[in-house]
Design brief:
Site-specific tyrosine recombinase, which acts by catalyzing the cutting and rejoining of the recombining DNA molecules. This protein is mainly alpha-helical and about 280 residues long. The chain contains twelve helices and three strands, in the order αααααααβββααααα. α2 crosses α4 and α6 packs across α10. The radius of gyration is 22 Å and the shape is elongated.
């Protein structure tokens, strides 16, 4: 019995193990619905020219950014790769459709607030990965600083983390939100490995920065835009700056050794820092 386009899409999501979360499924589902609404053809009659025409439409008519277009192309390629493996189509029309090249000068240096929210949503299927993403973003710490956080460095009641392994051998406190605190506690309560480190591997030693980067690369492929640990740190700073926080406050949170990195306007004590931080949540 021949399947309809919708039945095939549903089966694709049921059987595709690469789609690891409901949010990723929604992203792909929307892209596929948009393609078939535009194409007005049954899935097994689509030609390569139809895919190219749709991509051109996305570029010239909708005005989408290349990263968003790449996300939709990835969804279509994944769907037709599945159809090809299952012999649902005579030929894979998306196989040779290439992603749009993005010049390094075009790549964003930080994520938008909406992109951060999307990343938070897609990563919540893994308690540890969601906590890594959220802690990087809400604290603005460097990846090396994150992976050296010990449980004894965390002050749960005041919502602070003492960064002892900072760049240039400096030390500082960073804040984390109430939501981050609750997720960290839940993650630790369900962790089966005994370790003094906040984020550890199966042997109880700190995760490697390469492991975290591979994790973020996986989310990058799903979402269609670049994500790195430093981009999350930069996003933290940019989003706080957009809320008119003092440069000096940012310098303290980011641990900048060079005073010229953030222009100093005023100083404030720890209590005022905390109030400023809470107003940005």
């Amino acid at each position: 019995m021949k399947k309809t386009t919708q039945e095939t899409i549903d089966r694709f999501f049921e059987e595709n193990n690469q789609i690891s979360s409901s949010s990723t499924e929604r992203v792909y589902y929307i892209a596929l619905q948009q393609f078939f609404d535009y194409c007005q053809k049954k899935f097994n009659t689509v030609k390569k020219a139809d895919v190219r025409d749709w991509v051109l439409h996305l570029e010239e008519v909708t005005g989408l950014e290349k990263t968003s277009i790449n996300q939709k192309i990835s969804a279509l390629r994944s769907f037709y790769s599945y159809c090809d493996e299952e012999d649902f189509v005579p030929v894979n029309p998306a196989k040779t459709i290439k992603l749009k090249k993005i010049d390094s000068s075009e790549e964003p240096k930080h994520l938008t607030v909406a992109q951060v929210a999307e990343l938070m949503e897609i990563s919540k299927e893994s308690k540890r990965e969601r906590c890594i993403v959220q802690t990087l973003y809400v604290t603005g710490v460097r990846i090396s600083e994150l992976l050296n956080i010990r449980l004894s460095d965390i002050y749960w009641d005041s919502g602070q983390i003492f960064i002892t392994k900072a760049k240039n051998h400096t030390q500082r406190y960073v804040f984390f939100s109430i939501d981050c605190r609750e997720r960290l506690k839940n993650y630790l309560a369900n962790r089966t490995v005994e370790s003094s480190y906040l984020f550890c591997n199966r042997w109880g030693t700190p995760l490697s920065s390469e492991w975290v980067r591979r994790c973020l690369n996986r989310y990058s492929e799903f979402l269609g835009y670049k994500i790195t640990p430093h981009m999350l740190r930069h996003s933290f700073a940019m989003h706080l700056a957009d809320k008119d926080l003092e440069d000096y406050y940012l310098q303290k949170l980011l641990g900048h050794a060079n005073i010229n990195s953030t222009k100093i306007y005023t100083d404030s004590d720890e209590e005022e820092d905390r109030k400023d931080y809470e107003r940005t949540e």
